[in-house]
Structures are given as C-alpha cells and as structure tokens.
Amino acid sequence: MGQTPEQIIDGQRQDWNRVAGGWEKWDRFFDEQMACLNHRIVADARLRSGIKVLDLGSGTGYPALLGAQIVGMSGSVIGIDLAEQMLAAARRKAAGLKLSNVTFQTGDVTALPFETASFDAVTSRFCLMFLPEISKATAEIARVLKPGAWLSAAVWSVPEKNAYLTTPLAVIKQFIELPPPDPTAPGIFRLAKPGDLAKMLQDAGFVNIAEEEYLAEVRFPSGEEYYESLMDIAAPIQNLFTRLSTQQQTEARHRIVGSIGQYRRADDIALPIAVRMVAARKPFG
Ligand SMILES: C[S@@+](CC[C@H](N)C(=O)[O-])C[C@H]1O[C@@H](n2cnc3c(N)ncnc32)[C@H](O)[C@@H]1O
Fold first, then answer.
1. Which member of 50, 55, 142, 165 lies 3.0 to 4.6 Å from 74 by CB, making a disulfide possible if both were Cys?
2. Measured from the CB, is residue 218 less than 6 Å from ligand 1?
C-alpha cells in the first residue's frame, strides 16, 4: 500500500534533516556551481527592492539568500522548509552574509501559515516535486500571492538529460531491482514532464505561464568528488544506496566513478543537468 501524505512528509523531514550536514559541507561548491539557477529564479519572479518574498523548501537558503540581497533592507524574505537542520544552516549563512531581512521557519508548503495576498513573489528551487499533494501547494501559492504577483519555480527535468542524477541510479539498478517509478509518486522526477507543473498552475488559476528547459553542467575536478558530494546531499539517492550490501556499495562506488569518465572534458568532468523553469502570475483579478 502507498504511503499517506503525512507519512511522505514525515519521511521528507527525516531525509533532509539527515543530509543537512552534507549540504553545509559542500555549500561553497554547490553555491558556485548552481548560482545561475538562483539568478534565473529571482529574475522570473520579478524580484525588486522593497518587496516581500516567500521561498518554498528553502533548505540551506537557495534562492532565499539571493532574494534577500535583491529586495534589500526595505523588503524581506521568508524561507519555509520541513527540515529544521537545513534551516539552521541557512540561518548561519544569512548571519555570515549579514542579512537581517531574511527569516527561516519550519512548515509545510501544502499548508502555508500565512495570510491571503500577503506576498509580492514566491520562489522555489527543487522542492515542489517532493510534495505528496502538489495541487494543494499550487492552490496555497495562489492564495498567499498578491494579485499580479509572480511565482517562479525550478524542478528537475527528464532523467535522460540529467546524467548528474541518473548515473548512480543506473548503477544501483545493476544490483537491485527498482520498481518502475510511479509517475504520480513524489520524487526527483515527479514534475519532469513538460507541461505537468504548468497545467497544475493553470488549474490553480495562474496566467502568463512560461516554461523552459534550462540546460547546464555541474563540474567536478574528479569522479571521487562527484560521488562524495552527490551522496552527501541527495537524500533520495542515499535511500536507494542503503539497500545495497556493504560489498555492493563498494563495487557500486567504483562503477559510478568509472562511468562518469565519459563526461570528462579538457579541464574537468562536466555532468549535464536539465532543469524545468516554470513561472506564472496570479491574475490582477
Ligand atoms: C533538494 S532540497 C532543495 C533545497 C533548496 N531549495 C535548494 O535548492 O538548495 C528540497 C527541500 O525541500 C524541502 N521540502 C520537501 N517537502 C517539503 C514540504 N512539504 N514543505 C516544505 N519543505 C519541503 C526539504 O526539506 C528540502 O530541504
């Protein structure tokens, strides 16, 4: 039997709390590698000085911290996430950046603890596909946005274009049978299909919906660094990995590092990523 939404949310909270240390350990690296995504998200959400922004599933602060820099001291950003440990890291980073206009609070994106029409923009990076009830979240986003305000969200696109994520999955499948993914179950690729999130936003009443598949690479000096960094932060992949025996894990590591050799370029290893960028606006009414 499938899990209830509450069980899925509990699992998500545990998963992301467990990897929070890994996110903090690799923060500088991923900050540098994935900054372009944050810039794209805040641009699509039309962030500007003085506005009030909500960031969903902020984790260790992306893109909330960039948002806070853009809205400045006359504006503010609230980041919400299930995982307190991830948010604790985000708060440390905000303090390090001397940003006093951003706050982080625990909460569930499908039941936002905010008043109707209280935000000028909503941003979200790599969160919405993990929700058991995405349509509840899109309805909530529509509710808390002011008329005319924008949502901008990034989710993973299709597995075929995301070797960065799928390389370990392909190797794990050599050891254990993974059931064919249920297309409606929460997970990394739940919103990968073109038009899926856009349709949900349309159903929630959004207009001016724009969607683009954004291609980039994450670059690593070595296969070992790729393996260690991904395994430290990717809770869903970690979960599958723990199903292998210790001996299988050692062999899988060897095969993963070996198989990404094909992405070696002159100076580094460049793993492709494809991100679905979706922006939409709440009508003026
Ligand atoms: C892959 S991390 C992304 C974090 C950050 N936005 C980033 O891009 O670096 C996914 C985050 O979504 C959060 N999350 C998952 N389901 C959630 C929910 N129902 N409500 C709030 N946060 C949720 C997790 O706790 C986790 O921190």
1. 50
2. no
Give tens-digit pLDDT for 63-92.
999 999 999 999 999 999 999 999 999 999
CATH no. for residue 179? 3.40.50.150
Stated pTM of the model: 0.96
Structurally, the chain folds into a number of domains equal to: 1
235: its two tokens: 């809770």
Domain, as residue range, for 234: 5-281
Residue pair 241/193 in contact (Cβ under 8 Å)? The answer is: no
Pick the atom of ligand 1 nearest to 16's CA: 25
59 CA from centroid of ligand 1 (Å): 5
Q: In whole angstroms, what is the distance from residue 61 CA to residue 71 CA?
A: 15
Centroid of ligand 1 to alpha carbon of 264 (angstroms) = 30
d(CA 120, CA 76): 10
